[in-house]
Amino acid sequence: MEPRLINIGFGNIVAANRVIAIVAPDSAPVKRIIQEARDRGTLIDATYGRRTRAVVITDSGHVVLSAVQPETVAHRFLARDLEEEPAE
Predict the structure, then answer these.
(1) How many CB atoms sit inside 10 A of residue 3's CB?
(2) By CB neighbour count within 10 A (0-12 exposed, 13-18 middle, 19+ buried), where does 69 fall?
(3) What is the pLDDT of residue 81?
(4) What is the model's pTM?
């Protein structure tokens, strides 16, 4: 079984089975999560200098910043699930 990968924008990819949450970066708790990850050295900035629109939190404690909307990332995540369902 090959690992499922999700494109988070600009050719950056995360392993779908490691994703815990995809959230918007606007709230204070999410900003705190980003700052704590930066301090720990587990922040991955995949925005290429653009505005952060989605924050991907993984089970390994890594926090990935993406310039793609959370809805878009979630749609890509769900689209992969639909592709892999067996046809009856």
Answers:
(1) 9
(2) middle
(3) 64
(4) 0.87
